[in-house]
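Batch 3, record 17
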Amino acid sequence: MDGFSVTITEAVCLGTSIALSGICYYLYRKSRATVDKLDEAPHFNIDKKLKDILKVTPGACLQYAVIEGAVKPVGKPLTSLFQKEAVGVLQRYMLKEHRLVWNRLSSTWTDSELVLHQRVNTVPFVLVGADETTIKVLSPLQASGLNMEITHEKFHQVNYGLGDIIGQYLSGEKLKGQLETEEMLKVGTTLTGIGELILDTDGTLNLRPPSNNAQYFLSITDFDTLRQEQENMNLWWKALAIASALAGALVLLWLSQRFYQHLKVRWEREEMRREFERLRAEVPAEPEENYIENACVICLSRPRDCVLLDCGHVCCCHSCYTALPQRRCPICRQNISRVMPVYHA
Ligand SMILES: [Zn+2]
Ligand SMILES: [Zn+2]
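Prediction for the assembled complex:
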């Protein structure tokens, strides 16, 4: 439609809200599928009966099952770097740098952190059931939901001199210090595992990442808490998808309202032009010789044949009037509410 254009801000708002609602909807569907799979997954106790169940299962494999047992290392466990008595099977050491960065937009200092160093150590481990039956846990680092126990946390503050403080205000960055943390999955912790259960040919039970694209979970919380966390996440994605879709609808509504206004103005102009043509048809044409002194101030070729209201100026021809970029009198800049043909007696 000529004369109507979408501004960059409107295009960005519309594009962003459509893209966001698409992403949020996708994540909502994905987390819904995860919760549904968790609900369908059978729960088993780690005991001798589990082996018997797997023996009669096709492929000696249960695609998605929930088990719970105590963590026990297969060989020598890992020892904490900071607490000599703490032993575990998974250990994550992390050193993070914390800085304050000056934000010009909000005129405040905002926190920013950077991982300087991270190290993860693992040793093979099993989950032990009530009757000492064990299940070996494979690829634990691929599992989600594993929040380990913090065995060490220390913040190393930085001390400054006057020169440093001046430097910080000039550069807009302040170093706060370094945070050193160590997390461990300790021996003896009760762990909930959700994944594929398989009975190996040598008679060992294994828990491994599912081959059917379901999510692999290892968690130190119980199943119900884990399921609730997933459910909450699902609700969040749903709310965000609805909110961004609504925002997109609002932008569309705003655009269509603006387009309607644009059309209305065009219809009104068209209506006025027809009215003018009709009135002019009733007026006899002016003789040629009067053209020069009575020429339109804009094109200087056609006669002035209309009067602009409300100011009353007779200064231009009707074609120049319709081509005006703004509906204002070219002489006095007053708004034009109507235009009438000039009647020469
Ligand atoms: Zn003209
Ligand atoms: Zn005027």
